[in-house]
Amino acid sequence: MSIRKKMLKACVLSAMMFCIPAVSMACTTILVGKDASVDGSWMVARAVDSSNGTENMEFIVHPKKTNQTGNFKAYDRDTFKMALPQTAMAYTGNPDLGNEKDGYGYSEAGFNELGVGESATETIYSSDNMLKVDPYLEDTGITENEMLDAVLPYAKSAKDGVTRLGHMIETMGSGEGFGAAFIDTEGIWYLENAGGHQWMAMKLPSDKVFVSANEGRLRTYDPADKENYMASPTVISFAEKNGLYNPKDGAFDFHKAYFEERKNDETYNYPRVWRLQHLINPSMTTTVADSGTTAAPVLITPSRKLSVEDLKALERDHYNGTEHDPYANANPNEPYRPISVMRCEEVHILTVRPDLPAAIGSVNYMEYGMADLGLFLPFYQGLTSVPDAYHAGETPLNEKAASWIYRKPQVLAMTNYNKYAPIVKKTYADYEAKVAKEQAEMEKQYLAVYKDNPIQAQAILQNFEDKTLTGGLQVAEELTHTLMAQILKDTESAYHFEGF
């Protein structure tokens, strides 16, 4: 079990002892097929929420490694054992707490040198009945902590990533419940595990959208359709043997067999699924309560094709314009958990445009902290380095770390959301629009020379990244000063004691 989830477990136990609300970790995942997107991109978006949001996040470019020996070293435990393959491809990752110095760990998303991407994990929970017969192996099983670093450097395709992770679940076991997405030019595969050793995966239909919010969402499994489904060999027989599935009840349902609905879902998980599905297709007539039943479809068709900008807006949502908006309504006791929360570490949107070379066709649009008040920046698969601030996360509350530079305006804006949040949003929207124009020009220049002069093409890409990522830090720091000045002025006005 990872450090963060051990902390969460301790928080839950404390809450039970002292009758205070428990802190939960969560994520919100959105998958978009290429025929459901405006430019033919496959897209994977996920918000990475933590127990309190104070972790420093880094961005690491891992070089290719050859002649590896020994075992994979997880940064928070030595009980996880995995022999390292001889060769590891170059890849990017975004861990916290400087894990690349002390071992691998807690990278949430990235691309490898082949343009294969991974986002892991969406936290989900198997049923109590399942865990009685096949419990999690918390000390030795694979968890979110290791998943990206143990799979992505060795995945030759999205499907190969699923195969590798599935084999690890079967042979090493799972340490917790999770969903993981893999993306490449051929599509998106999404895997969910159940208990210690069962799993299934679905290939996303190209014209559909899938959303998940801390629930096991996969249902249909067709073992004969190997092009679109994969699973552990005993996924059906195990459920039948242990009384989790009866063929007399109809076709096998992965969710029904291995998961269960909990009271907490009604306000914590269902509203997010319902909200996203209705924003993506407003003609839907399902209710919040339907999200835990077969009435809410696993896959939906969007009312219009989606863009990266649409996914940014979806991950930034907090029931905007409704009675359930906790920020605009200044209601921290709002029962519906919003998608965008303050304790979010980062949000990433992995995009793959199949008709472009991987260096510019695979892009990770990422922001640090709360997405509603965050700045999304493009991290291209072909970049070779990032400014120092993006890998300065060795200690918490490191003021030189990019994650904290971007976090400061968010903290300040939340002191009076309705007054200060618009300042943050406009500033970042202006910079994102500027970057989008420069992106288009950079890609045009790259494509003009990359076949005949790959070195020049690489320089064009890297110069763009250096300028864009450095510029983002400057914008955030200037924004912090602007907010500080405004808050100082407002505070002084409220507590103005004048003698004359």
UniProtKB/TrEMBL annotation:
<protein>
    <recommendedName>
        <fullName>Dipeptidase</fullName>
        <ecNumber>3.4.-.-</ecNumber>
    </recommendedName>
</protein>
<dbReference type="Pfam" id="PF03577">
    <property type="entry name" value="Peptidase_C69"/>
</dbReference>
<keyword id="KW-0378">Hydrolase</keyword>
<keyword id="KW-0645">Protease</keyword>
<comment type="similarity">
    <text>Belongs to the peptidase C69 family.</text>
</comment>
<keyword id="KW-0732">Signal</keyword>
<dbReference type="GO" id="GO:0006508">
    <property type="term" value="P:proteolysis"/>
</dbReference>
<dbReference type="GO" id="GO:0070004">
    <property type="term" value="F:cysteine-type exopeptidase activity"/>
</dbReference>
<dbReference type="InterPro" id="IPR005322">
    <property type="entry name" value="Peptidase_C69"/>
</dbReference>
<keyword id="KW-0224">Dipeptidase</keyword>
<dbReference type="GO" id="GO:0016805">
    <property type="term" value="F:dipeptidase activity"/>
</dbReference>
<feature type="signal peptide">
    <location>
        <begin position="1"/>
        <end position="26"/>
    </location>
</feature>
<dbReference type="InterPro" id="IPR047804">
    <property type="entry name" value="C69_dipept_A-like"/>
</dbReference>
